[in-house]
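ugh ok fine here u go
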Amino acid sequence: MPTLRQLAYLDALARHRHFGRAADAAAVTQPALSMQIKELEAELGLTLVERRNKGIGLTAEGRVVAARAAIILRDVQDLVDSARVQSGKVLTGPLRLGVIPSVAPYLLPRLLPALQHHYPACAPLVRETQTQTLLEELQRGDLDIVIAALPLGGSGIETLPLFDDPFLLAAPVARADLPARANAQILNQETILLLEEGHCLRDQTLDVCAAGGGDARIGPFGATNLATLASMVANGYGVTLLPTLAIKDQPADPRIRLIPFKDPAPFRTIALAWRRRTPRERDFRALGALLSKTG
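structure:
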């Protein structure tokens, strides 16, 4: 009978397509992982892995088994979570939390101390990456919950809006010609600096530009974080939109002028997302209540 360990190793191999990286992800030596995969193949009477000079691939049978293994592992994790919930305690044990990069550096410094204070038995494990990757890992069962901006696609996902996060126009301080209150039409006259492809904040900024006519000049590069965008603005390379969350409790940069928008101001909505069939909904709603206070 295949063991959960063997299924977990196959799942890691399916995701990383490399014995070394899969072994690192599973916290095991590469020979041990390879041996368990061979034993799994022998148990099932199937060749699951194609071993190549560079990396590996899954056979057609291997892809089917790996997909089933991922479902089994997720269900086992749900079983463990359900048993923990039956104890009646809220937010105890590991909490695998995914957060988008335009939120993590600004929200976590307030959330983590509050979480430790109110729920000391909770052990958060934080993963910071782009929205699509977080959602894939959430649906696969690698994450318990995600903090991201709405809307969020994907079936079987429950969302809980937390707070609205208005945008500000960030311009070089020398731009005294800009009005005290911005509107979307102003963006058509500027070079807009953006995060790289895949960041939801990039798409949200482009949506605001489209509302103003869609004729804005897009800067020639994509940043990986808001700090880089702000630095480019400070040095006169263009303007950008910054969420209020990113400047709240942060030291002001004297080189940047932050301009609020006229009402109705553009904003994003930050939300929690989790798998709809999880047994930990009570935990996640408790986390949402805490986030609403600290956001």
